[in-house]
Every structure is written in C-alpha cells, then in structure tokens.
C-alpha cells in the first residue's frame, strides 16, 4: 500500500513542476518521503539533461527589484506554462534575482559564473531544471541606475507569473518623479504587449511650472541623442 495520498502527489507536483507519473514513481521509491522524492526526481532529471538541450524555452517569467536607486531585472525561461507557474521555478527565479542584486553583475556571463553554495549559478539552474524536468535557462539581465527607478511587471495571464517587465529611471527624487517614472514604465509595458518596443531613453527633468505647482516635472526635450537608460524584458 502506498505511503502517500493524492494530496501528497498534488503538493509535490506544485513544488517541483514534475509530471504526475514521475512524482508517483519518486514517491514509491522514497516510500512516501517528499524530500527524498524530490532528490530522486533531481537525479533522474540530471541524467536526461542532455536530451533537453535542443528544446525550445518559450515560457517563463521576469522578476525585478529596485534598491537605493538601482534597478535589476532578470528573465528566466522554461518549456511550458505549467512549470512557469510552479513554486520551485518561481523560487529559482527569486534566487537568480537575489544573486544578481547582491553581486552587482551587469551581464549574463558574469551572473552565471557567480559562486552559489560552492558551484556556479549556471549549474544551480541546470540542477533545478532537472527537478522540474524541463530545460531552464536564464535568458538575460538588465541593470539601470538613476535618481528614481521604477520596476513595473505585468501579467499577460492571471494564472501565470509576470512575463512583461520594464525598468525606467529618471533624474530626480520625490513623489512627482516616482509617479512619472511609474507612468512611463506602465506605458512602455503596454507598448511591449502590442509592438516590439525598443529601449527607451533616460529623460532629464525640468522644474515644475510656477503656474502649476502640483504639476509633475516633465522630461526636457533634447537635441542630442540620449543614452539608453531604460530596459525592457518581454
């Protein structure tokens, strides 16, 4: 008689994103021990990692964090939307984001080479993908600095994590700058859902009009090209 219930199977599937039969076999082998079952799924998944190399990773999520005027955004991809909403996949993305924020990495190669618990982050991602039973990749990272930075994440489906993200920075601080940065970020995200929106330029700010003291500062027009200061992941 099995030492686990249908609820145990469901819980383990939600934690790992693995298929029902894989979860049942792992629980059988682990005599109902969930943690041992996860390790069994991980080991079996690693053995099949090479078979997944050529698979497409069209699903996933974006995650972002703003700390002290620095915004960081990462994109992590997987094969199916089922795994994209799995707790373990979301936790992996959170771990990747935390490493990106703490390390100060500004490019993907540097990020994936960072040591995490005695191994490169790239290996951690492969191992977690083995548990999930899918090819998982960190696709890109974006970092931006400014007086005020806004990170806006948008869900294209209520059942899935955010898949559209925008970082936008402005020079200046305060409520007006924060509102303006957020409004622009939301607008860029809306563009991204209907067009292949390019990177935006960082605006400079003028003082509010004396005739309209409650009016937020507006970006000043510039005759010179502005360096790209906003990043989008979609």
CATH class of the largest domain: Alpha Beta
The CATH homologous superfamily of the largest domain corresponds to Elongation factor Ts, dimerisation domain
Helix tally equals 8
Query: What is the end-to-end distance?
Result: 47 Å
What is the number of independent domains?
2
| Overall pLDDT | 78
Total beta strands? 8
Proportion of beta-strand residues: 15-25%
CATH architecture label of the largest domain: 2-Layer Sandwich
CATH T-level topology of the largest domain: Tetrahydropterin Synthase, Chain A
Question: Helices and strands: which structural class?
Answer: alpha+beta
Sheet with most strands: 3 strands, antiparallel
Order of H and E elements: HHHEEHHHEEHEEEHE
Looking at how many chains there are and whether they match, the oligomeric state comes to single chain
Shape: elongated
> What spatial order of strands do you see in the largest sheet?
1-2-5
Q: Over all CA atoms, what is the radius of gyration?
A: 21 Å
- Can you tell me the residue ranges where pLDDT is under 50 for at least 5 consecutive residues? 195-230
Q: In percent, how helical is the residue content? A: 25-40%
Describe the structure.
This protein has helices spanning 6-16, 20-29, 34-47, 81-84, 87-103, 108-113, 121-132, 175-192, and strands at 59-67, 70-78, 115-116, 119-120, 137-145, 148-154, 164-170, 231-233. The protein has 234 residues and is an alpha+beta fold. It has 2 domains: 6-47, Ubiquitin-associated (UBA) domain (Helicase, Ruva Protein, domain 3, Orthogonal Bundle), CATH 1.10.8; 59-233, Elongation factor Ts, dimerisation domain (Tetrahydropterin Synthase, Chain A), CATH 3.30.479.20. The strands form 3 sheets. The protein has a 3-stranded antiparallel beta sheet with strand order 1-2-5.
């Amino acid at each position: 008689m099995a030492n686990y219930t249908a609820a145990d199977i469901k819980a383990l599937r939600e934690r790992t994103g693995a298929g029902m039969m894989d979860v049942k076999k792992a629980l059988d082998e682990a005599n109902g021990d969930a943690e041992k079952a996860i390790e069994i799924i991980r080991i079996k998944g690693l053995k099949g990692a090479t078979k997944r190399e050529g698979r497409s990773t069209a699903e996933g999520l974006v995650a972002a964090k703003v700390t002290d005027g620095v915004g960081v955004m990462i994109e992590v991809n997987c094969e199916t939307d089922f795994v994209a909403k799995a707790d373990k996949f979301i936790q992996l993305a959170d771990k990747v984001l935390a490493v990106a924020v703490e390390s100060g990495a500004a490019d993907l190669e540097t990020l994936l080479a960072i040591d995490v618990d005695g191994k490169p982050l790239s290996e951690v991602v492969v191992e977690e993908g083995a548990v999930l039973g899918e090819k998982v990749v960190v696709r890109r990272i974006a970092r931006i600095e400014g007086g005020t930075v806004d990170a806006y994440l948008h869900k294209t489906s209520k059942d899935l994590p955010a898949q559209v993200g925008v970082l936008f920075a402005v020079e200046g601080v305060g409520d007006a700058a924060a509102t303006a940065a957020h409004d622009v970020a939301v607008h860029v995200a809306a563009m991204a859902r209907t067009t292949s929106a390019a990177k935006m330029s960082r605006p400079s700010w003028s003082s509010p009009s004396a005739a309209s003291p409650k009016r937020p500062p507006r970006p000043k027009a510039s005759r010179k090209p502005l360096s790209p200061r906003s990043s989008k992941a979609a």
